[in-house]
Amino acid sequence: MRLLPLSLTNGGGRAVPLLVAALPWLVILALLVWAPHAMAHGVSEEDRSFIEDAKGVHVIPYIYLGAKHMVTGYDHLLFLVGVIFFLYRLRDVAAYVTLFAVGHSTTLLLGVLADIRADAYIIDAIIGLSVVYKALDNLGAFKTWLGFQPNTKAAVLIFGFFHGFGLATKLQELSLSPDGLLANLVSFNVGVEIGQFMALCLILIAMNVWRTTRSFNRSVLLANGALMAAGLTLVGYQLAGYTTQST
Questions:
Q1: What is the distance between the alpha carbons of residues 30 and 222, in angstroms, rounded to a whole number?
Q2: I want to staple 227 with a disulfide (CB 3.0 to 4.6 A). Which of 31, 135, 170, 243 is the partner?
Q3: Residue 48 resides in a domain
Q4: Strand, coil or helix: 244
């Protein structure tokens, strides 16, 4: 996977100061864009009513709900954008996305079926941090700061566990009927994978078009800075929610 060292810009060693200087403005922009929605990512009232009233196996509706949750899950989509940002070969994309899918499928099913619980705000804050991590990774920050490159595949798998746990916490907030629970959960997870595939196709098309333009290399720092700002914004909102909940 291609990495962009922080010093590899027209500004040379000025890349980090420029990023630091631009970050507050990017955070402000992200706040303005995400503020109406950052706390709303969850299950709609209509979907909540269906899930809580449903008894028995409902394969198609749960596939639809899983796909809907993924394509509207901006935290998952932001992480996917970061993951594939410098992946040019389809086999590399497939490898990383498969690891992510294995991670979030495992904890989604295990979290609900085994009733493993954690605070939803903390899990969602960690999901926000996964976006920040991937932006920094794309800029080669860890190699620059730590002197070594963390295993990116292991990181994607680990963060996949947290993303799946985030999905589980959303379902745990509902009164799920034990009748047909396993089949419905598997259907929901299949829907998540379908939604992820659909979103991934659109992201790849957009990325491939962008990569053919002259602006791509010039925009890498700004794009990942914006990705980082969005991740920090998500972290901030979730921690604010956790603090409010605790008081």
A1: 13
A2: 135
A3: no
A4: helix
